[in-house]
Amino acid sequence: MTHGSGQSPHRSGPTEKCGVVGVALDDRAAARPLYYSLYALQHRGQESAGIVTHDGFQQHDHVSMGLVGDAFDEADIERLNGESGIGHVRYPTAGSLDKSCAQPFTVSFKSGSLALSHNGNLVNADEIRDELAGLGHAFTSDGDTEVIAHDLARNLLEADLVRAVKRTMSRIHGSYSLTIMHDETVLGVRDPEGNRPLCIGELEDGYVLASESAAIDTLDGDLVRDVEPGELVVLHEDGSGFDSYQLVERENTAHCFFEHVYFARPDSVIDDELVYEVRRELGRQLWDESGIETDVVMPVPDSGRAFASGYAEASQEAGAGTEFAEGLMKNRYVGRTFIMPTQDERERAVRLKLNPIKSTVEGKTVTLIDDSIVRGTTSTQLVALLKDCGAEEVHMRIGAPPIVAPCYMGIDMATREELIAANQDVDDIRDAIEADSLSYLSIDAVAKALSRSRADLCLGCVTGEYPYDIDGEATDREVERPVIEGADLAADD
Ligand code: AMP
């Protein structure tokens, strides 16, 4: 879902960078495994958490603002009866602390009940909402998840589950990894471009769908595989297996590279790649492309760690005497600085969050490694901090290309005006952050580390060209945006 960045050409709604999960078990309540999986996916969203279960007769739900640990107490879990269910954690965005956008979203209609958890962002939600509103559907939020729910509910009046999902997929355009519960049946759907992750896991007594495999590990399950782009997975109600329907096929995918660079947990496997290994490989590529010999190389914790370890390893293999050092300590009780509403607060928060170990940097030349630069707040603060601590030189190396354009596909990035690389070249940015040198990774190195061609990645934030048809933005491929207003009803089932 999108939120009013002031930049987006779309009606504002909350930006969704979320975690989704779904579970179907044999003879065991689904609520507790769902709760644990949401804990494992907490990094994907801290604003609200919710679970909806179905006991064969009716739905039970508990959706609350806050972290998973605060959103549920024992009594809430006990009340969530049923052996199947779905869950959601939602990412916070300044100004959108609004319960109407918390998920899973639920709706009852003539042929049953639906609950939906969505990670991603539709770019044509307004068109579909307008059409459905004209047909009498009443909307309670401005979010795109509700649009998917209403569209699916309407299609379910005329078609079976698989056809109804296919019809909805033919109408919605954008990124979506969904877990859905129709009565007690749990489904998973991944958009035809595979933009956001979704995977299937096997438990002793059932199956699970989750944004990331770390959630499956937490339940002592085994990762079966990723849900394929354009695939619908239907979990058997008795936990005995799942059915797969490849509903839409595209020549190319558009996997979000930033999931691997920043967003996902390093211990998750996404699209067959362990995120930790991808980050280490990105670090190695960074050394190959722009390595510089300094006394120490240190990560910006936590996200820079795997990059710095790969970078340091490659530098040592190349005979450079660069020592890996953890020179910045992180206060783990400070939340994400990124979402602080003002620049002043963001700067203070970086200082609250990270503190250098003086003896590691004093009198040394330092290479500082981070996964990305967005507004430039973190790097500016850290370069100054390390110099204050006596670093002789500070060289920044970044494990991603410059972020030059906003993300419309579900990662809360900042607006074009706020992005430091949107209108400045690397030399200007180096001057702005006062580093002795600055290098980013190339797009080709990212594709190489991910073992994919550029044509199979969503690179919108680093190229300004998107794999979806977004109003006012360029595309990087032939994209067909569905024509709304009746045309879908004639869609080929
Ligand atoms: P900035 O300080 O604005 O340049 O942001 C860069 C820092 O924020 C880096 O340390 C990244 O690890 C982190 N970061 C990058 N993207 C995001 C995001 N979408 N949400 C929160 N933090 C991010």
Q: How many helices?
A: 16
Give unreliable regions as ranges: 1-15, 487-493
Distance between the termini: 27 Å
Rg of Cα set: 23 Å
Q: Please summarize the sheet with the most strands.
A: 7 strands, antiparallel
Overall spatial form: globular
Structural class: alpha+beta
Q: Please identify which CATH superfamily of the largest domain we are dealing with.
A: Aminohydrolase, N-terminal nucleophile (Ntn) domain
Number of E-state strands: 26
CATH fold assignment of the largest domain: Glutamine Phosphoribosylpyrophosphate, subunit 1, domain 1
CATH class designation of the largest domain: Alpha Beta
Keywords: 4Fe-4S, Glutamine amidotransferase, Glycosyltransferase, Iron, Iron-sulfur, Magnesium, Metal-binding, Purine biosynthesis, Transferase
EC number: 2.4.2.14
Catalytic activity: 5-phospho-beta-D-ribosylamine + L-glutamate + diphosphate = 5-phospho-alpha-D-ribose 1-diphosphate + L-glutamine + H2O
Protein name: Amidophosphoribosyltransferase
Can you offer a commentary on this structure?
With 493 residues, the protein is an alpha+beta fold. The protein folds into 2 domains: 19-254 and 484-490, Aminohydrolase, N-terminal nucleophile (Ntn) domain (Glutamine Phosphoribosylpyrophosphate, subunit 1, domain 1); 273-466, Rossmann fold (3-Layer(aba) Sandwich). It is built from 16 helices and 26 strands. The strands form 7 sheets. The protein has a 7-stranded antiparallel β-sheet. A 6-stranded antiparallel β-sheet has the order 5-6-7-8-12-13, covered by helices on one side. A 5-stranded parallel β-sheet has the order 18-17-21-22-23, sandwiched between helices. A hairpin with a 6-residue loop joins strand 12 (231-235) and strand 13. The longest helix has 16 residues, at 275-290. The protein is globular, with a radius of gyration of 23 Å. The model is unreliable at 1-15 and 487-493 (pLDDT under 50). Adenosine monophosphate is lined by residues 262, 300, 303, 336, 338, 370-379, 411-413.
